[in-house]
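Researcher: Before we compare anything, I want clean individual predictions. No alignment, no superposition, just each chain on its own. First chain goes here; please echo the sequence and then give the structure tokens.
Model: Echoing the first chain and its structure:
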Amino acid sequence: MAAVYSGISLKLKSKTTSWEDKLKLAHFAWISHQCVLPNKEQVLLDWARQSLVAFYKKKLELKEDIVERLWIYMDNILHSRKLQNLLKNGKTINLQISLLKIINERMAEFALLGSQRSICVVLSCCQGILSTPALAVIYTARQELTVDLLSQLCWLACRQPGAVTPQLFEVLHLTLGLYLSIQWQQVNPRRTFGEVTTHLLQPCLVLRHLLLAGTWTQAGQGLLRPALGRDIRSQIEAVLRGGAFQAELLPSYKEELLDQQQGDTKMGAMKNLLAPLGTVMARLVDAGYCEPSLQAAVVANSVALLYKLFVDSYLKEGNQLLCFKVLPPLFGCLRISHLREEQLQALSASDWTVELLALEQLLNSVASSTIYNIATDRIRHGETQFRFYRRLAEMLLNHPQASVPAWFRCLKVLLSLNHLILEPDLDDLLASAWIDAEVAELRTQKAQEALIGTLFQTFAKLRQVPRLFGEVLGVICRPAAEALRLPVLSAGPAAVLRECLPDLPPSQVLDAWALILESFQSLVLPDLQGDMDMALKSLSLSSLLHCVMVHARSLDGDSPLPVVRRTRRTMDETLRGLVKPLLDLLCKPQPSVPEPWRQRVGDSALLLAHTWAQVDTVLGLSCDPYRSEPGALAGTAPEPSSLPLLLPGVEARQWKEIEEFAAQSDSLGRYCLEQLYLQRMKNTLLQASVQSEEALLALRRDAAYILGSGRVSLTRGTTASWDGQVGTVSALTYPVAHWHLVVSNLTILASYLCPDDLQYLANVLLRTLPTSKAQEGPAEEEPDVTLGEISKAVLHSPLLPEMQSLHSALLLRVTASCAGILCAGAQGGPALLRQQLPWLFEGDYAVVAHGESRFPKVGSEGVEPRGEIAQNLLSLARGDSPIQLEGEQLESILRLLEVLSALQLDSLPPPCHVHCVLLLLSLAGTVLGSSCSPSLTLRFLMTCYRLLGYLQRGKNAQSVLRVMYVSDIFEITLTSLFKASRRFLVDVDDPSWLEFLQVVGTFLEQPLQVLLQRKLSPELNFGKILAFLSSSQLRPEAAPGTRSEDQTPLGQQLLLVSLTKLCQVLGPLVKEQKQHEALEAPRELLRAAVVQAGAVLQLCAARGARGRRLPPPVLSSVASLLEADVALCSGRGGTDHVLLPRAALYQAVYSRILSELPALAGDTPSLQAAVQFLTLFFLAPELHPQKESVFTSVFQSVRKVLADPAIPVQVVEEIEPHLGALFTQMLEVGTTEDFRMALQSILQGLDVSNAWRADLQAVLSAVTLVKLLLNCPFGGEKASLFWRACPQMVMALMLQTREACREQPVAPALVGPVLDVLAALLRQGEGAIGNPHHVGLAFGVLLAVPLDALRPPEYGRIFPRVHNVLFSILQCHPKVMQKAIPSFLNCFHRLVCSVIREGRQKDKGSAEDLPVVLECTRLVERMYSHMALRAEEFRVFSPFMVAQYVMEVQKVTLYPAVKGLLQEGIYLILDLCIEPDIQFLRASLQPGVRDVFKELHSDYVKYHKAKHEGERRYTV
């Protein structure tokens, strides 16, 4: 082969050699070790470079594919491991400038022409150069090449977005990083400024804008990783800051912006650099570097960035004016600053959004810095800044953009800078941002709410809220097209007022109230007659007055008397001068006025009437002087026998007219009239004469009116939503508001409604419930309420069961609906159905609601209906019923059953309880048509039996046994289930089928338990059940060669579950009676059940043997069967004659469980059943195999399960109690050698080599095994073995913790269990661990845990465990504490520092993690108290503990709750300090820390010490 490569250089340069051969020769020369050339790598690299340079300089003609293969060859060399190894070994490989130039030229070509040929390979070559420091040094040496490459890469990404590949961003990231390193080393600021502004500013800003817009991350392109995009944006910002805003340029900026001459004579290099800001702005607004539409967005996006970079670079004391001077020129780059009026009008909403977002960011930069100081600006700078902000405010208010959230936010920032900026245009602000604003989008509503909130907060601080209300009233009362205005108090502004008004002093509230009242009386009321606009203004003013009156802070008995008198006068004036005239105007006959006018006036009048009545009641209750003040119409106390009026001074005849008017339309007036009646009900209930017949009749009348007022509207229904504000009630939202009013006051109304009204309420509630998730709506995004949401809240309210009448009405409405669907599915006539299932036709709500039984009582006076009811249900279950349901009917019943599930059925009266049980049994036994899918059928039956199980756990479960025997329930249930199982097309291990079996099993077990508890003829019932099961068609004793159609796998599992439940109930009974030899009946019943269960179990196990795993029901049943066998043989002198018939079965199941145990971990119930079987298997030594140790086999299987990484931690935690029981039996049966083997296996799992191999699960399994052993009682030689191995365990735990905590992030999954086991070892090792050194190893574990590296949830789990270990040492090992107090305090100090750090008040974010920190702080305080109890040991260290505490506390500001708990603890340590200790601390602490200590000691003396002195004196 050497001959092939002879003269390779000549052949590569030869013109006679074809380029195909040259490329092959060059490739093999590079990879072959047989080609020996001096400096071979450099020669081959130079050949490829020269060929490419010659081609691009037109000195060589090559085909396109040859050129591309030359690039690929170059790329292979640059990325080869061979080249990297050579460079790593110190060999020098030189790249020529010409190669970098042609790379840059290709990038420019790609950017301009969009050619994509070879783009990937050229980018790869560039990446290979830049990612190799030894090769990238040429770019560092030739800075202009780096600048050119970076510029061309940016333009390539910006101008050819369709040609962008993920590799381009990787190269761009490398190039930016390289240029930043060059920029940081550059000593010529002028050169850097020129490079950035001339070559990089425009492409970098365009690229940053496209990155922020998500150009390459949207629509699932996946061209750019989000993290890489963020890194590139950060690098661009660093490049711009390092080039355009260097510290050396500050004098030039000052000269340009502040007209200051440079005083530094050493700035020779900067003399010619004039107007740097002008240069940057000229490049920014320069036309032509991108599309005009894109450029506007780029400029808007970049202005805020440039200002932020300028402020970050130059803002320091004395430069505030300079930072402001940059703001107007940069703002001038935005279109909204210089366009003419007609051009501004032509801007679209999206254009305004872009511009206003930029302005918002500019203003936020000003607000977050200390740029604007009101006093400094006014005194030193002639209000320069203030005038600029005023121009901004005028521009924003002259061109309102209420559809753009940024417009509101800009105004909010200006208001927060100085309220005087917006105060001259306060009326325009209120009009355009609130009263006349058309705000629909939720984000815009939030922005509007924030602005109005800031406005009210500002004027509240200025104590000028009445003035603000005056401006609001002026805007509302302006001549305007009122019909086009939205409600004044929608959800956002109303929420602001609700938050602001309670904090105002009463005088300001009364001033605002008086202003609204005066405006109403002087500007609206005189011209209200027939004027529609005035009617709308009256409604707006009424809403505003309602908000002020209702949400202002109420007076009380301590309120000043002048304020009370003024409130009394204002209330009287409101009633006399406003409410009554409006009501009179409403009742006056006016045939010529339009109906909408009357409706608006009525809404206004009734809203104010309702508001006045509500406020008058509240003031009368909370403020005694208010009641004693005389009033013109109000406050006159009624006669003791009279009932409250709707409103004082309004005649009953007038209310009749008002009621007739309100009934004409669904409006705010009708809603307020309902509120008035509700208020009268409350006032009636407050009177002492509420028990009178007259009061009771009035309450029922008012309740009926409230409910009947909206009956027609609720019948129609609506899909609209309501924001909860009175002012937004309309014809569309009235049904929601009315239903909300009724539901919110059900506790008052329900007691005074007749049965028909209760039935109506139940009907509405059931009809308006959402039937699907889609109807419920996105609750997170939409704060409004709908009919469905209100009804759903009632259904799940804990108050519903307390309202017995409504609860019973709703329950019976649901059951009647279910019965109605059943009757609709009847194939024959209703007479036959009424005869067979009479309970379906029981519809007397009144009887059931009052708890009267409709069933004959059992006894001599009545006829016992048990046999008849059971036979009817059994006939239904067998399929003899005339009822058949189809798919749609089944779906309807399922929805009703979901409602029934939400009701609390555990405390039903006996008749209701029996009715529900009979109905559900009827539903479960109904014949289902062919349109019912198997999955729907299974879901339906599962719901029925889950509800039946819930009823059986209820308080009156025994009432069912008055109409049916337990054996009847058992037979009815299984008969219907055997019939239905033929329809289920599911596998025996399908999760839904397994869940159904569990539900059925739970239901079957409950009546059997009741049977034993109540002693209701258990032998008779159990005998009947066994007889039914043995005679079932599913019996395994079917004739050979025949197969019943019922013998399906699912049916066999149902039979197995029922027999298993029978064995589980009878087994404990036999155990309890084993001392009474005479009681043979339970034992015989259990023996018969075991025989049947064993036969069915063998069939199911044989079927499962053909599969991969034992079915879960088989596992559960075999454990129960083994337990029953053990119970039968106990006390009989042996187990052979009982266990031998099924010994082979148990041994086969044991073998399969051992092999399948890891696979069962995915199914927690199956795993629990398997572990339970193994536990019981240890109780039968006769079953143990002779050739192997059961202990060893089971231990190794359990260890495999625990060491399986696929098993979640939650599964292990769930089965730990079952594993504990298993290990207890294992230790009783196992020998000392078995126990020694287990300890060796555990120590191998704890070996630190597992951590080095990252085998976390092996370590966790060993830790879990230690925990299980510690929970088992063992003694003698086994205990001695365990505690001798304990030091090795503690040392291994320490090493494992250190290794786990070295990794970042820390693995809390290992650290937590290790700490639990360590604490248990220390607690149980009290007296057993003799060497104090072994206990001291625990401190090493605690010191290895990095509490500061944990996230809040992990912190809350690890901290208590660390505390638990320390507490175990303190309490259980006093001898160790005598010598290890410094180590103990070192660990405890880490806990103190940790809670101080976590309990500090954060600058940003909420205190959502505070409850976790408080729990940990309580543990610290408790540990302080334990140390204080050991005064002799800790007294010497007490001053050092106090010093450490105050040094840590001095660094942060703690939450008050955290600080209080820590102080309570440290006070106990101060109790241990003597006076010299206090003097020592005062003298030795640093000045800042000393102040903290003085404050701490002062509080200690004032509060803690004085309190304890008082307690001691009291004790004496």
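Researcher: Okay. Second chain, same rules.
Model: Second chain and its structure:
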Amino acid sequence: MRAPTGLVCLWALMLLQAQVDGSDGDAVFIREFTLSRRDDFPAENLHNGPGSHKHEDASSRTARSEEDRDTLWDAWGSWSECSRTCGGGASYSLRRCLSSKSCEGQNIKYRTCSNLDCPPDSGDFRAQQCSAHADVHYQGQYYEWLPVDNDPENPCALKCKAKGTGLVVELAPKVLDGTRCYTESLDMCISGACQIVGCDLQLGSTAKEDNCGICNGDGTSCRLVRGHFKTQHSTGKTEDTVIVIPYGSRHVRLILKGLDHLFLETKTLQGMKGELSLDASQQYHLENTTVEYQKLPDKEVLRITGPLGADFSVKVQYSSGADSVVQFIFYQPIIHRWKETDFYPCSVTCGGGYQLTSAECFDLRTYRVVVDQYCHYYPENIKPKPKLQECNMDPCPASDGYKQIMPYDLYHPLPRWESSPWTACSTSCDGGVQSRSVSCVEEDMQGTITPTEEWKCLYAPKTPILQPCNNFDCPTWLAQEWSQCTVTCGQGLRYRVVLCVDHRGLHAGGCNPTSKPHIKEDCLAAVPCYKPMEKLPVEAKPPWFRQAQELEAETTISEEPTFIPGPWGSCSRSCGAGTQWRTVKCQVLLPFSQTVADLPDDECEGPRPLESQPCYQTPCPGWKPGEERERDRARTPEKEVLHDWEYEGFTECSETCGGGMQEAVVICLNKQTQEVSDEGLCERTRRPPELVQACNIEPCPPRWDTGPWSSCSAICGVGLRTRAVKCILRLHHSNNTQMVQDEECNLPKPSLVQACNRFDCPPSWYPREWGQCSRSCGGGTKKREVLCKQRMADGSVLELPDTFCPTSSPPTLQPCGQTDCPPQWVPTDWSECSATCGEGTQRLLVVCQRLNKNGQYETLMPDACDSSPRPGTVRVCLLLPCKSFVKPVAVNPEPTILAQKKVYIQWRKGRKLHFVVGGYAYLLPWTSVVIRCPTRRFRKGHIRWLKDGKALVSLPHLTISHLGYIKIQQLRASDAGVYTCVAGQAQENFVLRFIGSKRKLAVPEGDLWLSESDKKVHGASFSTTQLHFTPDQYDMVVQRILDMKDLSPSSKELLESSEKNGSNVEDETAIILVADMETLDEVSRNLSGGQQKENFLAQLLGELTQNHEEANESTFHVQEIMEVSTQSVVTQKTDLRTAPHSTKPLDGAFRSPVIIQKDQWSNSASPLEFMVNVGNQVMLPRQVIRLVFKCQSSGKPEPVITWTKDGKELQYNSRVGLLPDSSLEIKSPCEADAGLYTCTAKNQVGSTSVSSSLKLAGSTCSDGAAGNSLMCPDRSSDSCHGQHCPPRWVVSPWSACSVSCGGGLQRRTVTCQGAEDGDHKCAVAGKRPSHLQPCSIQSCAEWMTPSWGPCQGHCIGHRLATQHRFVFCQDRNSTRASHRMCSALSKPSSRRNCTTDACALHWLIGPWTQCTATCGRHGFQSRHVTCAHRHNRKPIREIHCSWRPRPTSWRRCNIRSCGKVGDCTDSTRYCEKVRQLDLCPLPQFKSRCCLSCRDT
């Protein structure tokens, strides 16, 4: 078998095993040579033997790496050409061993290249290799070979199958490098071995796509959608929608179980609809998407790998039988994502403030911000938490100490965490828990606190909602010592005090009453009594005496001076009533030494405790218990036995800190039940005395003190008000306070800032800062932008149309630079050369001129320009050499360069662009460029190239071909400049400009091509004509075009249009705007004139992108520059060049209307109904029942279509009317309808008209009309009468529409005339006309007018303002409709004048100040002029008084002579200050303060 034609290959086998080594970046090592085409290697290497070696160009090898220097390898060579031009190929690099011995490692490495998708019509790469063997005999005959894919044993062998047979043959052991191993894999065959290729298209990479189609993704950019759908046959429907799968979805799988049938409908992002019927099991292609359909007896299966190229609506068509079930699963892309914003402006200008971020919902398809509901649709979308940071921490200036609060222009007020009070502890002791609610709140302008979403507060940690409490032991009963027995003999009673003591050792409540130890018990004296026993023993003393003693003993020594009582001494008497004493000292605890010191009594505050008290131990001898008992019984009722007074702790302290008082609580206690009883049950005379003690004597901790709120910083649209918050400390034993550091206050600091005046502002003008003056002198102008905006209550600012602002816009232009420019020399034309050949001189005429403040030049005397250097007025001129009188010889014709005077503007990046010298190119970065210099009568190898006047040298990315052209790989900013092609004495320039970031031209410094020194050095190479060459002469026009593109809200329209019409983005086909230099010169002159610049540029940009069929004389069109040779340069006479796939003009620029004219066409259901494009002459047969004139237009804004007949406004009726697309419909045309119909398209920019002449066939049918598609009828039919006429359809006029709007029906009768036995005889006359047609299909709509807004905005007169309302068109379904639907109705006014006291304004004028000079021409005086309210004289913004001229606030004064020349006087009242500041030596001060400065 001989080698196939065109596939001569070089087999170079080095090693057998394939191995991947990732040690060299994105390149890998493979132990085999690649199977490469013969033309991939230099011709010299093919003739050298295996042992020969050819030295490579030093520039083709990279420098040896540090690793290579430590080994015996040479540096790696340059990369070879890619094995494929698209679809993914392989490139290799070689290195040589510098030693006679073998080197460790590989001498070849590979990398992927040309990873761009191939064009759809290029076919499969493996199939191309099989088809290359079609002209090779195999077993005596020719076969058409088809590829055998996915061979599991040897996927990199070229196995092919003969078409129409079962013959499979291995035609080659290896496929070409870059062939995919498997059809559904990225793995690549290199040197006959299958190498792994990741989704990042790198050899040896293990990167894989996730379910969302993202390489190395984590699966978070899409969501899994699964579910089922059950058909409902009982509803009577014939079809139903299962699910709508959105654009970009992947891995779609649907299974229908049942007898119903699936079909698909699509809708692209541009609104184009499509439908696909699934008839047989096969692959279908719809909207660049492959659909696999499988039909089985009991089910249907639908698989789509994706991504979907449109929105797919899966529908089911019902059939008879039981209901079906559809199961579906797919991965839906998340096309809306949260995008975090930058930090909003700082809340203050100085002194320390804060700023927040927010999050916006971003549409990944349109790159626009949408409403938040789109992002809330996806549960996976978690809105980022706002961030908070401090800002403007510098202290405010000490001069005023004023801290300006910025209004909430662009961000919401700062919310905060608000917590409710802690609940009561779950237990009173032994450790419990208390809780509270914490919510995110914000305050409105009235200080009302409302809850809001928690995420707004997540910039700060959330305060805890639980905390432990009462982590101390519960109070316990503490029993004191028993008293002595109440009797000295026999059985008596003894008492003790039982206190409830808490964890601090203090008497308190809270003990369990049931566990209280008893306080009284029987006692037996050792001495028996010889008297009868009494029922009740005699008590020694009331129990509350000892209780009082114990309660008062609670005082402990502290760090504050306190009275400390000592223990009670013994009673003064051993029997009966006596007195006992104790010591009371003023003492203090020293904290450092933990010792107690005694102090004088006046150092202690509060009452001094008692030093003595009565006591009673035993009865004295001779005491008669019976008598005492009788007295007691007479004095005390019987109830005293059961009830008595007791102390029950102390009341709460009167102060929480700083020293307070508390009183002992006395209760009446039932001695038997230990329950509190009514005080009336206890004897009042036995009530114990009141006990008072000091408490909470420790100093109060610091606390926050808040001041009053300031006035609001804004009158509307959310402002701020502030207050002072300081940490203060109350002084001990005083009501005075002092300020301490904020860190000493433990509680959170109250808010310093609060939102206020949170309601919408009226629309008003917002002027921006003035721009720079166009001239520093000589009368210029400066511009500013004035926008109509409305500040909303949420802090945002809406940009509104100018009509919403009630008054006229403030000026956007104002004069500036109103001073005369300094005189200067202005050159005029050069004189003619003094010689007619050879070398001569030229003289330049210069005049002294200046530009005055009015922008006009004035010619002055030459003496006025003495301060500026006079330019040179003589130069050398070089003409053709003088003829020498020698014998004439044959002279070779001079070489010429075939230049093209064009200007190219790159609109979209491309792979490679080809240009010819002579023009200008404004290109985007990283574009590859080839600049050619076609010549005549000159060898291309002798062409020289210069850049910016200097010899061009080759760089790694810039090479000069031996064929004379320049190739620049991946254009960068340094490549911009002027490239000059020199061919003998001929030369042409090519200016390369660089479009930088934000579509701004990157103009290099030193914008002149050649300096004077350069001209001298290179003078031999450049003629005098080149001295007028200006590389930047089109920069202004191009920059304005780029700016207009940037300002357009849909600037990607052109790119999207080209992609939609067949231009694949992956092809990287550049889109270039092309214009002639002559036309751009005219544009530059129009721009310099300053007349309607913006409209002119807008129209220019529209022409640059408009189809030449839609524009009459347009010169600028989009051109897709492909890789073409020099011979294929366009040299047509006309400049109308346009891309076949980019005819849609860009939005954003105003364009005059254009009516699109096309050939007439007929596309109706009946041969007697015609649709004709306006502009064609129409001759109708008489049997036509309906005619439609189509009038398609384009423009911006969208044009309005109107129709006239014979120059008059067309009257519409039931037969003649407009369709929704503004087409003209004529039903049952008759002789009265003949005439000239004109369609006029009009918008704010202009209007255009196209006419059509309508005639009905009859006596005027000429031969010329016979060739028309709407040809004349057969004359035999016109001349027939009665029964001799052939059968034909006869229709009656249409009835009136059933409804006036919203869609109705019209009816008519259709009969076959000339046939008595049925309508079938009229079959020869064509299809039966329809007897029904839709009518009044326009929506029922009307103008809706809500209530008028508030009377506010700019004042337009005394007590006059404007109020607005929003007027919109709405149909009967309460749905907003286009204004065109209501255009037939009179639109109500959206603005009116109103009366308001807020506009009772006038100019408030103050008195004139003292004149600044007493004489001369420099004195002036001023006064205050403010706009104020007539009633309260409160000043407001001056713009509200602009309806009345503003009085002057400045004038000159004392304009009179200062006396005779030589009189020394002061002409200004500031001369004393001039003298004090030592300004007299300056002439300008000395002349005006002559008298004061005379003695200095």
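Researcher: What stands out in the second chain?
Model: DSSP finds 14 helices and 97 strands in the chain. Additionally, The radius of gyration is 52 Å.
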